[in-house]
Amino acid sequence: MEISQLRHFLAVMEEGAIGKAAHKLGIAQPALSQSLARMEKGLGTKLFERSRRGATPTPAARVMAQDIRNGLYLLDEAADKARRAQDGLAGTLRIGLVSSALFEVLPEMIRAIRLRAPDLQLDLKEMSNEEQIKALEEGTLDIGLVHSPVAVGGPMSERVLRRDKLVAAVPEALAMRLQRRISLEQIAEQGLVMYPKEQLPHLYASITQALRQAGHEARVNQHANRTLTVLACVAGGCGVGLLPSWIQTVDFPGVTFCPIVDGGGMPDFDLVAIWSTRNRYDLRALFAGI
């Protein structure tokens, strides 16, 4: 049976007359009669009793009707999903993200994507900058939420999602003595807890350069490759962490967040979305609501 025959059959079932069904479908009545005749021949059973009063469905037609409705509904759904997939609005979107994206940015992104593309499945992986860059170059990620600047091979698009100033994560007892404010000199005296240099080379260089330009030693006591690990090291008395301002929304025992009173020379800590320009998903459209 052809799909057109199934639609013709349902139209006659709903209208109760071949003439009315033909008008609804926008085809000639003889063409509709021929379509039904071919369907009956293929099934080997009569579907309608024709009379001057219209077309009365046979028991066989009544048994088939709901199954045909369900089948056509599923077929239409499948075709619609295929069109959305072609437009980049269905399938699986592989997203890598640094831990700072978990706060505010990722929930907002999920809401925007759900609104724009409800059939799009999200595969979320928390990864470092380094890991995401490698995955983007290998094509195993569709989009990375990373700290900029980054260098990724191949043509890439980028969008800034959040721009943060740096604040100091300070051991609680020290913060109380300093009245919850800290200077670059005091940071240098305590030493730093930092992300590894190879993880965020630009940020690492900018922070150490800012300290040296202010006349202070850039001494790193401890490296930690995750934000929560930095906080744990600060709470343990390893030194002062310099983190993006969003971190102040986190309540971490033993740590107080302090403004840097002379930190104007410190770099911003940007969170960006980056993806290949050859990506099949319309990511600019997906980000429209963010």
TrEMBL record:
* Coiled-coil boundaries: none
Q: Which InterPro entries match?
A: LysR_HTH_N, LysR_subst-bd
Name the UniProt key words of this record, in alphabetical order.
DNA-binding, Transcription, Transcription regulation
- Occurrences of domain HTH lysR-type (ranges): 1-58
By its UniProt entry, which PROSITE patterns does this protein fall under?
A: HTH_LYSR (PS50931)
What does UniProt give as the signal peptide span? Answer: none
Family statement drawn from the similarity comment of this UniProt entry = Belongs to the LysR transcriptional regulatory family.
Task: Output the PANTHER family linked to this UniProt entry.
Answer: SMALL NEUTRAL PROTEASE REGULATORY PROTEIN, TRANSCRIPTIONAL DUAL REGULATOR HCAR-RELATED
Q: What is this protein called?
A: LysR family transcriptional regulator
The organism of origin for this protein: Candidimonas humi
